[in-house]
Input
Amino acid sequence: MFKLIKQEGKARRGVFETAHGAVQTPVFMNVGTQAAIKGGLSAEDLRNIGCQVELSNTYHLHVRPGQDIVKSLGGLHRFMNWDGPILTDSGGFQVFSLAVLRKIREEGVHFNAHTDGHRIFMGPEESMLIQWSLGSDIAMAFDECIENPSPHDYVARSCDRTARWLKRCKDELERLKQRPDTVNPGQMLWGINQGGTYPDLRIRHMQQIAELDLPGYAIGGLAVGEPTETMYDIIEAVEPYMPADRPRYLMGVGTPANIIEGVARGVDFFDCVMPSRNARHGHVFTSQGHINLNNAKYASDPRPLDENCDCPVCRRYSRGYIRHLLKAGEMLGMRLAVMHNLYFYNHLMADIRTAIEEGRFDAFRRENTEKFVKRI
Amino acid sequence: MFKLIKQEGKARRGVFETAHGAVQTPVFMNVGTQAAIKGGLSAEDLRNIGCQVELSNTYHLHVRPGQDIVKSLGGLHRFMNWDGPILTDSGGFQVFSLAVLRKIREEGVHFNAHTDGHRIFMGPEESMLIQWSLGSDIAMAFDECIENPSPHDYVARSCDRTARWLKRCKDELERLKQRPDTVNPGQMLWGINQGGTYPDLRIRHMQQIAELDLPGYAIGGLAVGEPTETMYDIIEAVEPYMPADRPRYLMGVGTPANIIEGVARGVDFFDCVMPSRNARHGHVFTSQGHINLNNAKYASDPRPLDENCDCPVCRRYSRGYIRHLLKAGEMLGMRLAVMHNLYFYNHLMADIRTAIEEGRFDAFRRENTEKFVKRI
Output
């Protein structure tokens, strides 16, 4: 399902087939946690800004509106009117980051919902049932996300359990897909590598989960507070043990520089809330560095957010207008800023793909990694 | 500038020319107080839902971002990327409804801003300067909006002052439009009839302001708490004194039923925040009556908001999805609901226009006035 078109160093230019179309990689997935992109973007907006894959969340959609409602309305694609590929996160990360009073057992995790505190149990089978009901194209394995740093022996035991959970995820999704009321018969399961910041555990766990021969593998549990260099080191350590003929997904990462460095280390899929969250606070990515629209100097600036950008926002609106909307609390301000930032990310990935195709990714990396960090 | 195409009883089907195109009347103007429609709608969204005239507010844009910024960015049309007709309210209503510690003098009104409390003075000349800077197509006169009911002698004195203010508005706008840096040379001034709930004062004031021979006249100070029947009575009383060859605008009105009844009494222009405000609270207008999306029965309802509606929302999204978005606090929910409700209003006006053209407005009125009040 994953076809490698071109490779330069570790950087890979590929195509990945899903039940809802092909994904050109490296790719950035646009995050719509609750089946909608923050800032009021519609599925049509997503198409207009070059989004290839939409990402929603198992835990959030379980809590509200509930997977049965989404399934009864035809599954997630029809629910949100997005007919392109969808990846659903497993809920594992949210159970460990949002939920309170959790108890981890071999069978799964007991915890209280972050909304109204009602008691929930989620294990591999529950996560698969929810994702199967949602009908995403890529379901993610239910895993334990540990804090960094955690003790080596705890991480080792956690990884073993996550490996056992992965086998249960695989069995359960295969079983569910036999049901005649399956929303998406083409749904697949990807595994998630854990192991904290310990290269030995990362490698051992990767070897364990590679045995299940899944169509894709993610690196989870990074970008959760550890130094950036540690993250890069872990990717470098585990990458040689990831199947070369399967896509690799670095979960929750990151800045434009992080993404370029991830691609340079052999990663194909990325996702992050940063572009939409930053946008809502007036922080905008541009080809020249990032700008803070809250700065008074932009109040009467007639230029588009990025003078080199061809997105639907930059073709129509000025910095001054968008700044006014954000200051006045008008939702349109957030929507325009989010659209631009997501376009910037999607467009960055297109530039990366072209650079690899043309055998000049190394030069692209040297030119751009630092540029995007600059504040202008 | 106003051409009457057809009349049925008092109901009028007309065309009104502005510097940014013709307006087919009767028309509902879509309210974008702060140079943006609430709910995150862009100017492109407005085009897609049949908006003819956008309405922004002098007071709000004076407070934030300030008319000089809008002017420096090319005026309101360019600022918000809307090249159709724009009407700006004068700020009079907001000065009397939002501002605190106001003092009314012959020269104008001293008051504190509702945002940060800073002291502002606004009179006819200030209102004209702001609207001239914004470059709207229709500038509204600066008037005093009294409460209903107010004592007869106070209303009489207020009307006389508002009539004197109108003359100052006219002189000032004519003076400003001589300036070479005029944003919109085609900008025009409309007068506003006041007089509270007193037919005699309404008529006297209308006779006063008709003498200024303005290109349009509004009925202000209604729909501010008085009974609906009183509002209809006042329109009926004053309408014979409004120039028949000029458009009439009933400010801030209203429900679909109010609009149909207004048209039946000779009104051509309407505006109201009701469709967008209701939408944001999950209250949706449909051809069968209005629905409250907060009702649990809509959670798994696969139908569009209105099964007879052809708007961009009803063609793509279910009640269940939009209800989920509203419950989850996703901005997209508000945006979709607002788009539908505004489309409903714009489409209602198109139906009214067709009914008048075809000489069956009276039947349309009988069939529809009650229907839209029903809760389904």
Summary: Chain B has two domains: 2-272, 284-373. DSSP finds 14 helices and 16 strands in chain B. The first helix of chain B runs from residue 43 to 48.
